[in-house]
Amino acid sequence: MQMKVFMVFGGAIFAVAAGIFLYYSFRSPIKFKSLKLLDKSSLLHLLSLIRKEFSSKFMSILRMNRKKRRLAHRGGRDYRMYVKDLKEQAKKHLQRAMDDVLLKNGITENVLSDSSKHFEGDEDVSKCMSKLCSIELQRPPSQLTIKKLEEVLEFYLSKAEEFNEEDPNELNLKMKMLEDEIYDEFSFEPEDIESAVNKYENDVRNLVLAVRELNATLLERTNEELFF
Known about the structure:
Largest sheet: none
Transmembrane segments: 6-26
Distance between the termini: 22 Å
Keywords: Membrane, Transmembrane, Transmembrane helix
Shape: globular
């Protein structure tokens, strides 16, 4: 059974089956809460490993796609083709990263899927799941200050609040167009912005919460499919 890699919000909460609770570890800090579930810290650790694996393999593909996409007419046929191709490539590479990390850690995809469902109401897990298909940077560009970050987030909110698409493909297209518009306006990529948010989250907390709430609404409106 394949885990739905685009699942971020929603779904039934997994009922924990009664049974013996096991606590043991491999060489990695993976621990089981039960026979079928990872504990929260192990789930977060596993998701972070998947994201790092995905980032290392997907970065070059992402950069090439952005280069081609931004040379195409925004919203036109070629542009749409590049957006669609990026989404398919992201799904394929995320599945590959997931398979590699699970194999290395001796975890099945069913365990990862069930554990994710069990903790899906948890803010930390939801946040980690929503970032699986985004590239991870250790630190933001020096020119992305708190003031500039506030401008970027306010710009994002002002544009994304106008989206009313119910089709996930159309929303995905609009999100990519907005991503490129932000790049034109500020010269920052999504991974730059996320890295800055991680660094300055306490300073821009209200804006970050507004963005997360808006994104959750957009995901719900499009049958909860994650855009890439």
